[in-house]
Design brief:
heterodimer; A: 80 residues; mainly alpha; globular; B: 390 residues; alpha+beta; seven-stranded mixed sheet; five-stranded mixed sheet; 10 helices
Chain lengths: 80, 390
C-alpha cells in the first residue's frame, strides 16, 4: 500500500507541483483538495493507468473521488 | 530592401511590457516570416514570438533581460520592398531592468522567511531555480511579495539582490483591473443565460469514450468548445472584433480558452479553427495548450488569435459564470458545472444532466434576439451530437 501511495503522490506532483502532501485530506474530494480541472484529472488518471498498468473506466470515476478511495481501488485492481 | 523596426508585441490585451528573455537571432542572420526569433518573458508566461518579415537581421536594439514597453522597437530587420523606417535605439531601457535597480542597493538584508504564497514566480524563474537548486527561502530573501522574474534568479545566482517596487498583489490587481476596467467602461455588455440539457451529448460521449484509450477520452469541455464553434458558423456576429466603430467578423473561429495558472492568474490562448477540426484533434490540441500554458511556453499567435472566449468554471463548481468580454472581442461564453436535474418525461420523472450556459455580448454589435437564437442553436447541437462529433 505504501508503494501505491508513494507512486500516486509522485504522479499528483507532476500534475500539481504546488500540492502539499501533508495538507491533502485523504477523505475529501481530491479534485477540490488539489484544484484539478477536468484536463488535469484526465492526465492524472491516464498516468495512474500507465504506471499501475490498470484500466480505469470512466464509469469508475465516481468510486475514486478521494485519495483513500483511490488507494483502495488501485490495490484491488492490481490484485485482479 | 529597407529597414524595418521589429517591436515588442502585445501578447494579450493586458500586457504593457515584456522582457526579452532570449534572442534566437543575431545580426546578419537571415530570418523567414514565421520563424521564432525570441522568447519574451511576461508577468504571466514565457512566450515565443515569430518574425512578421522575411529578411536579414541588421541590429538587436535590446539586450536579453531588458524590460521594455509594448511597441518599443527591439530589433531592426532589412526587408525587401519596405520603405526605410527610422530606428529607435533603446540605449536605456524604457523601464529599468531589475539588474540595474539592484546595483543601487548596497547590501543584502536577509529577512525572516515568509509565506511564499505572496510571491509570484514566473515560469522562467522556476526553471532557473530548479536548474540551479535555488531554494524558495533564498528567493524570499530577495522579496517578500511581488513577481520573481528569471532576471531576479539570475541576479541571485550572481550574488546580487533585488528590491521590489510593485508588490505581487498590486501587480496582479493592476493587470486584471486594467483589462476589466477597459472592457466594462467601453463595452456595453448584456447577458443571457440558458440551462442546457445534455442527455444526448453525455450519452454520446459515454459511448465514444468506452472504445477509447484513457488518454484519448473526450471531455465534456471539448464537446462544448466544438458545439460553440458550430453554432457560431450559423451566427457569426458573435465571432470577431469591434474596431473603429465597426464590427469586423472573423473568417476563422478561434476560441480563446480561459485557463487558470497554478501559481494564480488567468491566460486566454486560442484553439484555432475549431469548427474545422475533429474532436480528437481538438482534444490533442487542448491538452497541449493547457500543458504549455502552465509551463509558460505559449506562442504569440495563440495569444493573439482568439475571436471569442469561452470560460468554463464547471470544474471549479460554479453553477454559472457571467464573463467579462476580452477586448476587442465582442462576446464571451460561460459554462458552469454539469449537474443532474429531475424532469418530467411523459408520465415519468427522470434525472437528466444539465449545464448553465451564459452569453455576455457587446450591445454595439448585436442584440438579445440574436443572442437567444445562438443559445437555441447550441441546445439543438447538444441534442444532435452526430452533427458535430465524428
Amino acid at each position: 500500500m505504501d508503494e501505491i501511495k508513494k507512486t500516486t503522490f509522485n504522479i499528483l506532483k507532476q500534475i500539481a507541483p504546488e500540492a502539499d502532501e501533508a495538507q491533502i485530506e485523504l477523505d475529501e474530494n481530491l479534485r477540490e483538495e488539489v484544484d484539478l480541472d477536468s484536463m488535469d484529472y484526465l492526465n492524472f488518471i491516464t498516468k495512474l493507468g500507465e504506471q499501475f498498468k490498470i484500466e480505469i473506466p470512466e464509469a469508475d470515476y465516481q468510486k475514486i473521488e478521494t485519495l483513500d478511495e483511490l488507494f483502495t481501488y488501485i490495490k484491488t485492481k492490481i490484485a485482479v | 530592401m529597407g529597414d524595418i523596426n521589429f517591436t515588442m508585441p502585445t501578447l494579450g490585451a493586458d500586457m504593457d511590457f515584456g522582457i526579452v528573455a532570449k534572442w534566437y537571432i543575431k545580426p546578419g542572420d537571415k530570418v523567414e516570416k514565421g520563424q521564432m526569433v525570441a522568447e519574451i518573458e511576461t508577468s504571466k508566461s514565457d512566450i515565443e514570438i515569430e518574425s512578421f518579415y522575411t529578411g536579414e537581421v541588421k541590429e538587436l536594439l535590446v539586450e536579453e533581460g531588458v524590460k521594455v514597453a509594448v511597441g518599443t522597437p527591439i530589433a531592426v530587420f532589412d526587408v525587401a520592398g519596405v520603405e526605410h523606417e527610422e530606428k529607435v535605439k533603446v540605449t536605456k531601457p524604457v523601464l529599468e531592468t531589475t539588474a540595474e535597480k539592484e546595483k543601487a542597493v548596497p547590501a543584502l538584508k536577509v529577512k525572516e522567511p515568509v509565506d511564499h504564497s505572496a510571491l509570484v514566480i514566473t515560469p522562467r524563474a522556476k526553471r532557473l531555480m530548479a536548474q540551479n537548486q535555488v531554494d524558495i527561502k533564498q528567493v524570499q530573501s530577495l522579496k517578500q511579495e511581488g513577481i520573481i522574474s528569471g532576471e531576479d534568479i539570475s541576479s541571485l545566482l550572481q550574488g546580487e539582490i533585488a528590491t521590489p517596487k510593485v508588490t505581487k498583489a498590486e501587480e496582479r490587481q493592476q493587470v486584471i483591473a486594467k483589462l476589466m476596467q477597459k472592457s466594462k467602461q467601453t463595452i456595453p455588455h448584456f447577458y443571457l443565460e440558458k440551462e442546457m440539457e445534455l442527455a444526448q451529448m453525455m450519452e454520446w460521449l459515454e459511448g465514444a469514450n468506452k472504445d477509447r484509450s484513457m488518454q484519448d477520452r473526450y471531455l465534456p469541455a471539448i464537446a462544448f468548445i466544438k458545439v460553440l464553434a458550430m453554432a457560431l458558423v450559423k451566427y457569426p456576429r458573435f465571432n470577431g472584433i469591434y474596431k473603429d466603430g465597426h464590427f469586423i467578423a472573423s473568417e476563422k473561429i478561434n476560441i480563446g480558452l480561459i485557463i487558470s495558472l497554478r501559481e494564480g492568474g488567468l491566460i486566454a490562448p486560442a484553439l484555432e479553427e475549431v469548427d474545422k477540426k475533429t474532436l480528437g484533434q481538438l482534444m490533442t490540441e487542448f491538452r497541449d495548450l493547457v500543458t504549455r500554458a502552465r509551463e509558460g511556453k505559449l506562442k504569440r499567435t495563440e495569444m493573439e488569435s482568439s475571436t471569442i472566449c469561452l470560460t468554463n468554471l464547471g470544474d471549479q463548481g460554479a453553477d454559472k459564470v457571467y464573463g467579462v468580454i476580452y477586448p476587442p472581442q465582442v462576446a464571451i461564453v460561460g459554462t458552469g458545472q454539469i449537474t443532474k436535474k429531475v424532469i418530467k418525461q411523459g408520465d415519468n420523472f427522470i434525472e437528466t444532466p444539465t449545464c448553465n450556459w451564459t452569453l455576455s455580448v457587446d450591445h454595439r454589435v448585436t442584440d438579445g434576439h440574436e443572442g437567444s437564437m445562438l443559445l437555441n442553436k447550441i441546445q439543438k447541437l447538444l441534442d444532435n451530437p452526430t452533427k458535430w462529433a465524428e
